[in-house]
Design goal:
Length: about 120
């Protein structure tokens, strides 16, 4: 059965990986930006990059791996490239601003109006 990808490069995803320690299994989340999707068919892989304690960590996941429990898309990104290798040189703040906002535009307009009212109240 062919599975459609629900994410693209630039999206913020959370990958839940099954880890077996002895006889116990647990799920460990790995959250980051999808840098690239490579391959085709069974050998398709995707690379996820995150910054942990100021150090960039990239991990390559096989898409059809039994060790992946689930993949959640947290935010959709808007990028014009298929491979985002330039993110390795960028700062974390600039990467976060490149992603689309998670709130719908109607809510954003309402939030901006509230901010303007607050700023008018404090200015007077």
């Amino acid at each position: 059965m062919k599975q459609k990808l629900e994410f693209k490069p630039g999206d913020l995803v959370k990958v839940y990986v099954k880890i077996t320690e002895g006889d116990k299994t647990r799920l460990t989340p790995f959250q980051g930006v999808v840098v690239q999707i490579k391959g085709q068919g069974v050998s398709k892989t995707f690379t996820v990059r995150k910054v942990s304690a100021g150090i960039g960590v990239e991990r390559i996941f096989p898409l059809n791996s039994p060790s992946i429990a689930k993949i959640e898309v947290k935010k959709k990104g808007k990028v014009r490239r298929a491979r985002l290798t330039y993110l390795r040189a960028k700062k974390v703040k600039k990467i976060k601003t490149a992603q689309l906002p998670s709130t719908p535009p109607q809510e954003q307009e309402g939030l901006q109006a509230e901010k303007e009212k607050k700023s008018e109240g404090t200015a007077g």
